[in-house]
User: Fold this.
Amino acid sequence: METSIIQLQQEIDLFVISNAQELEAFKLEFTVRKGRIAGLFAQLKNVDPADRPRIGQLLNTLKQSADGKVVEAEERLAEATPASQPTIDISMPGRRTYCGSEHPVQKVLGDMKRIFTAMGFGIATGPELELDEYNFDLLNFPPNHPARDMQDTFFVTRGQSEGDILLRTHTSPVQVRVMLDQEPPIRVICPGKVYRNEAISARSYCVFHQLEGLYIDKNVSFADLKATIYSFARQMFGSDVKLRFRPSFFPFTEPSAEVDVTCYLCGGKGCRVCKKSGWLEIMGCGMVHPNVMRNCGIDPEKWTGYAFGMGVDRTTLLRYKIDDIRLLFENDVRMLSQFSA
Ligand code: DAH
Assistant:
């Protein structure tokens, strides 16, 4: 018995544990319930009772040394593969990278810009913080025009020496800036945000988008305006769309009109969106008023031109069947992610 213990002790001492498999093999051989050390303990009952305490003591020492070797090896191996080192599970699905999407308003604006640039229009932009002079005065608004009312316009500073500063209420002041800056012929569109102090609801918001158009050349007529708007509308809303020009009034155009297209949701039959009329209003337009030309240093005897201004947000709502304009401005990713390519 004693020699068996000494032999086993030697085997245990010589056993090299350098990885998890070897550790497992060591345990199976020596320390498990049916291992070789347990086997020796089982033989203790056959030992002479007088020798039993001493042999029992030797066996305990053997067991302790084997257990100690297991603990030592476990610690050593755990250190070699720290828990912080990521273990890669190659069967896991990969993580998706988040990809942004073009805002629906920008998609619609993009289509509008493509149609007009293909017709030869350039793109001009202007500031959203604008001088009262450009937003109203030079566009032939009389001094007491109701649009200047605090109810409609966000004034930023009043009574400054350079004039009142406001958030532009339309994109028409960009026309003024272009005319002051360039010699005719002029052919531009001006897309951008505009601001109005209106009651906020599902249908109207304090900020929205417009796209302005301006064409000034020799002998430009209302027929040119109609043809351009027709061509635009067919490309934007479908080749069978019909148009209706209704006489209207704007201080900066004469004559002026508002343009309706046949409702592209019901095809003109009449529905909830077009309020049973079969028509949707898409823009205001007209021939540039001679006063506006003069205000901007262009001779109205020599040049004529047309202008138009259309909303972008309503078309966006209708195209994507969004029922609340506020959704276009809240930048809620749950809404925006539905428009990824
Ligand atoms: N500025 C007008 C608005 O905000 C829209 C408009 C109408 C622009 C007629 C024009 C135009 O250029 O000719 O309601």
About this structure: The mean pLDDT is 92. The two ends are 80 Å apart (CA to CA). Residues 52-80 form the longest helix (29 residues). Strands lie at 122-123, 129-131, 155-157, 165-167, 186-195, 207-217, 243-250, 253-262, 279-288, 304-311.
